[in-house]
Amino acid sequence: MEPLKILVAGPVGAGKTAFARSLLGEEALTTEVKASEDLGKETTTVAMDFGVMAVGPYRVHLFGAPGQARFDFMWDVLAEGALGLLLLLAGDKPEHLPEARHLLDYLLSRHPIPHLVGVTRLDLGRAWEPEEVALYLRLPPERVVGLDARKRADAFAVLTRLVEMAVEVRDA
Ligand SMILES: Nc1nc2c(ncn2[C@@H]2O[C@H](COP(=O)(O)OP(=O)(O)O)[C@@H](O)[C@H]2O)c(=O)[nH]1
Ligand SMILES: [Mg+2]
To answer: Which ligand 1 atom lies nearest to the CA of residue 120?
Structure first.
C-alpha cells in the first residue's frame, strides 16, 4: 500500500523534533544544528525531520517542517502529497500564535487536507489551553488537542487520530 504522508508544522520550539524523536527514537532522521540566533534553545532544525513508521496497518512517512520563517519555501515542498497536517504550537508561547495561524491558513489554502492542532508544553507556566487556541485559530474545539511531544503515548495518540482522519478522506 502507498505510504501515507503526514506533515508536522509549527513555530520554532513547538515540539516538532521532540514529536518525531518520541515516535521514531533513534530511527528519526533530524537535521539539528547549533542555533545561529537566539531562539531560546540550543539547537534548531535546518531542513526537516523525517521518519517512517507503522500506525496500525498503515505505513506513515512523517515529515517535520522547520519552524523559522526563512525556511518558508520548504513548507510547499514538504506539503506536496501530504494527506494529513499536524500543526504543533507551544502553549506557553502565546506570542507564536499569529505565526501559527498564518502557517495553518497558508498550508490549508494550498493543501486542504485533514488537520489537527497539538498544543504542547501545557505543563509549563501560563500556557494557553487547547480550547483557547481553538478559538484563536477559529477551529472547532475537537480539532485542537493537548500533548506532551516528549511522551511517546501522547504523540502516538495524536498521530493515530490524524492518520484515521487522513485515511477516511483518502478512501472516500
Ligand atoms: N516541558 C515540556 N517540554 C516540551 C513539551 N513538548 C516539547 N517540549 C520541549 O520543548 C523544546 C522544543 O522542542 P523542539 O522539538 O526542539 O521544537 P521544534 O523547534 O518544533 O522542533 C524541547 O526541549 C522539547 O523537549 C511538553 O509538553 N512539555
Ligand atoms: Mg526542530
So the answer is: 27
Indicate the domain borders of the chain. 4-170
Please tell me the residue having the least CA distance from ligand 1 atom 8.
15
Tell me the pairing of strands 144-146 and 4-9.
unpaired
End-to-end CA distance of the chain: 16
Nearest ligand for residue 31 CA: 2
Is the domain defined by 4-170 classed in CATH 3.40.50.300? yes
- Burial class of residue 29 (count of CB atoms within 10 Å of its CB; 0-12, 13-18, 19+): middle
The string of pLDDT tens digits covering residues 49-88 is: 888 999 999 999 999 887 666 667 778 888 999 999 999 9
**What tens digit of pLDDT does each residue of 10-24 get?**
998 999 999 999 998
| Residues written for the chain | 172
